[in-house]
Amino acid sequence: MTRHLVVITAGLGRPSSTRLLADRLTAATREQVAAQGATDDLDVQVVELRDLANEIAQNMVTGFPGPQLRAAIDATTGADALIAVTPVFTGSYSGLFKSFFDVIDKDALTGTPVLIAATGGTPRHSLVLEHAMRPLFTYLRAVVMPTAVYAATADWGTVPADGDAPLATRITRAATELTPYLTAPAPRPAPAETLTPFADQLAALAPQE
Amino acid sequence: MQFGIFTVGDVTMDPTNGRTPSEHERIKAMVTIAQKAEEVGLDVFATGEHHNPPFVPSSPTTMLGYVAARTDHLILSTSTTLITTNDPVKIAEDFAMLQHLADGRVDLMLGRGNTGPVYPWFGKDIRQGIPLAVENYALLHKLWREDTVDWAGKFRTPLQSFTSTPRPLDDVPPFVWHGSIRSPEIAEQAAYYGDGFFANNIFWPKEHFKQLIGLYRERYAYYGHGSADQAIVGLGGQVFMRKNSQDAVREFRPYFDNAPVYGHGPSLEEFTEQTPLTVGSPQEVIDKTLTFRDTFGDYQRQLFLMDHAGLPLKTVLEQLDILGEEVVPVLRREFAAGRPAHVPDGPTHQALVARRDNQEVSPA
């Protein structure tokens, strides 16, 4: 059976270094999944939030998603695992990145494994991952991978003489952490539709004798 | 099948001239609109209930009592009556009184309300929204069906030997619709009692409501009130018409673009594609409304939102003329064609009395 990995990237540039980091993380995850000898197919869908910017803003106003946004939300909430990457804007995740998660039902990502990552101009913003991204997904009751990946502009050029670049090492480690969720025998069960029968709703309100 | 209009009762600036009506003007306009609805042959007028500006209808039974005195056939209803924050005892009394004054031309739609602060303003906890709706309606239901009520619950002071007066007209309570935009619990509640379910579908895509109405129909049958296609369904609609489509679009666009609910969001074109809103010729409104049956099945009541977003009274009255003369007669004919005989008509007091009398004479 097919496992679904959805990659959410909030970069605005074309090309974007946020998308570049998302692609590196996706490739590393693919590699790890293949290395585990997984028999399941891995389906990867990339959600570029830039393309959904209008529909996200409209959803804020109308309360419902347009067709493209609805497809992206359905893919995200139905995924076996997520990779979520944002640029750092004004000391935090970008407004567009946050807005996407604002229009998703707050319970829809409960239990979903998420690899978080961010890009920025300097390494000084790297704690955005721990002080903004991780609490956001904790609120959504997602399962956030221990390793979060930050890429500053300089990281794209840093290759020490004595071994792997630190960025590449972190990418591999993060991908390794996410991999079990895409290869384990039983996928996360879909939440059951819960409808409390009306008699039970009434009984719950009966005064205690 | 019943056709009518429902109003939010907003006081909104007309974006084309910057003029905002006074509360007095708006209230009188609502009454004029209700009378016009009867004049053009519509069946139902329903008013919202709000407790904050810029909305005027805080006291629906007062308004509907006045309209009752000035109309002969129109069914007077609400959209919605707040079952969470109103005292169910007062709802029982107010609507029974209105039912007598209007000779039975009354039903009501219950809803939870979407303005958070109304809960604390009326001493309630918004986190208890669904339980309040469940318990308050259970009491309302009892008050209208049992002459003397002993009752205790979670949210209201207990009652001993209480009789809600006046008793419902002919001992038949007003028909109740349960209105919901997103809660399956409310569809379940409507199904449990065999009441009507009104899906105010005007702001959202149809897939969502298809699920909600499907659930209501399925549970209605489960509780033994009839088959799924006999469940009592009401739907919203929102239209603006001119003879020529392009004139309708040109005239309505500034109201759309500045409307309190969806203004400054999607374009008129996007919104008409995704929701029931139709801006165009009477024929386009007919075509779109007829698709509701394909999506949701044969249904009992169709209410249109006609008087919001600052549209001037004169325009609204013209719209009602078009609706009554050119649209609704065709819809009545088309909806009647191919409608199975076992699908019930829209609920009226006379029909409910007849059904009660039938059940009494036929052996159990």
TrEMBL record, chain A:
Presence of the UniProt keyword S-adenosyl-L-methionine in the record: no
Origin superkingdom: Bacteria
Oxidoreductase among keywords: yes
Keywords: Flavoprotein, FMN, Oxidoreductase
Family annotation (Pfam families): FMN_red
Domain NADPH-dependent FMN reductase-like residue range list: 5-154
Protein name, as recorded: FMN reductase
Origin species: Actinacidiphila epipremni
UniProtKB/TrEMBL annotation, chain B:
SUPFAM superfamilies, alphabetized: Bacterial luciferase-like
Residue ranges annotated for the Luciferase-like domain, each copy included: 1-297
Record key words, sorted: Monooxygenase, Oxidoreductase
Keyword Oxidoreductase: yes
Signal peptide: none
Protein name (database record): LLM class flavin-dependent oxidoreductase
Annotated source species: Actinacidiphila epipremni
